[in-house]
Amino acid sequence: VQLQASGGGLVQPGGSLRLSCVASGFTFDTYWMYWLRQPLGKGLERVSGIGIGGNSDYADSVKGRFWISRDNSKNTVYLQMENLKPSDTALYFCARDSMGLIRGLGTLVTVSS
Questions:
Q1: In degrees rounded to 5, what are phi and psi of residue 34?
Q2: Among 24, 20, 33, 1, CA closest to 109
């Protein structure tokens, strides 16, 4: 299993970013996919998940600001992040399970002025 996340960077508060994660090594369209994040010095937090049919869920802290989507033809899951806050600063991972046990290397998102 390989999960390659990208799209992180430095953004000002109120800005936007779109994260992508390309998956390989398993049958992508038969799994829920997740985004998790880990702020520096803190634990892993589940951000969002998306089902096979596109149903999704979100952590309360990101509802109305983040949107998850997937393209099964490209084995890719996305996280569109809007109105970013400094508290969103973290290493973001995509994962094949909700606990993040099967996850790739993360992509760093820094929200700062």
A1: -135, 155
A2: 20
Over residues 3-57, the pLDDT tens digits come to 999 999 999 999 999 999 999 999 999 999 999 999 999 999 999 999 998 999 9
Map tokens 């430095």 to a residue: 10
Per residue, what are the HEC states of 68-109? Answer: EEEEHHHCEEEEEECCCCHHHCEEEEEECCCCCCCECECEEE
Q: 């109105």: which residue's tokens? A: 83
Tell me the two tokens of residue 78. 């996305």
Residue 96 near residue 34, CB atoms below 8 Å: yes
SS3 of the chain: helix, strand, coil, percent, to 5: 10, 50, 40
Instruction: Quote the CA–CA distance of 104 and 90 in Å, as a whole number.
Output: 15
Helix (H, G, I), strand (E, B) or coil at 10: strand
